[in-house]
Amino acid sequence: MMTTQQHILACIDGSAVTESVCDYATWYASRLNLPVALLHVSEVPASTRRDLSGSIGIDSRQLLLDELTQLDEQRARVVNSYSNALIQDAKSHIKSYSDVEVNTYRRHGKLLPAIEHFNPKNRAIVMGRRREDHTNDRINIGSQIETVVRASSIPILISSAEFETPSSYMIAFDGSKTAIKATEMVANSELLKGLQGHIVMIGNHDDATTNSLARVTMQLKKSGFTVEAHHLPESDVVTGLLQFQTEKAIDIIVVGAYGHSKWRQLFIGSTTTKIIAKTSSPIILLR
């Protein structure tokens, strides 16, 4: 029976970002004093036996079907061996520099059901974003990432570049309920405490949103966070955020996913792909 001890779930696939995923998951787990759970989900290719039905004589068909059965079994063994080797290599990588507890899991099928299997234990999910998948503004951020983000109610960290120990973060803020909730989630977690924080709002220079920015900033400070508020002039949201990030050398971007108002487009449609395409920094999505 599965225990309810929480962990940081690191979804690895053997791509070039696997090491980055392991490292950010280890950092995340260390900050919260939790184990890392390495998850590799593999899909065994479907059998091709059905393709020969009725195409050749009875005796020869049976012989070939027997051979295809053997190929299916061999293919499954190779996939299982690869999955096991990948998991063990990832665990060895983490243990080479950290004493964080590491658990390993291998499953077959689709990623989302595998993640949901561990929902009682998942405190956060770390996933990788492949560089070759985002070469322009209209990238496909990956159907698996989008599917997991839309289905999850816990923080998701997406990484694509080599790990660097974070020392600063930026919360994208627009005064909406989603942004306020995201800020509250930051305030109620130890993850970013001790890092230099920035809350950035672009445009929306009305009294209500200005006062909202001041309130959440004060909330974070009362919770022990070192944070500064920045109310920037009206501009393209993505351009403004990433320009500020570059100027301040900020390590992590924190965003409330599926927001409303004009920022609702941040995780619906092209704006999502733009912000992910234009930064190699890790992004934490909060819902």
Task: Describe the protein.
With 287 residues, the protein is α/β, with parallel strands linked by helices. It has 2 domains: 159 residues, HUPs (Rossmann fold); 121 residues, HUPs (Rossmann fold, 3-Layer(aba) Sandwich), CATH 3.40.50. The protein contains 8 helices and 10 strands. The protein has a 10-stranded mixed beta sheet, with helices on both faces. β6, α5 and β7 form a beta-alpha-beta unit. α1 packs across α2. About 8% of the residues have low confidence.
The mean pLDDT is 83
Structural class: alpha/beta
Shape: elongated
User: H/E order of the elements?
Assistant: EHEHEHEHEEHEHEHEHE
Q: Could you say how many structural domains there are in total? A: 2
In terms of per-residue confidence, which ranges show pLDDT below 50 for 5 or more consecutive residues?
A: 132-141, 259-270
User: Residue share in helices?
Assistant: 40-55%
| Full CATH superfamily name of the largest domain | HUPs
CATH A-level architecture of the largest domain: 3-Layer(aba) Sandwich
CATH third-tier fold name of the largest domain: Rossmann fold
Strand content: 15-25%
Q: Number of helical runs? A: 8
End-to-end distance, in Å? 29 Å
Sheet with most strands: strand arrangement: 3-2-1-4-5-10-9-6-7-8
CATH class of the largest domain: Alpha Beta
Radius of gyration from CA coordinates: 22 Å
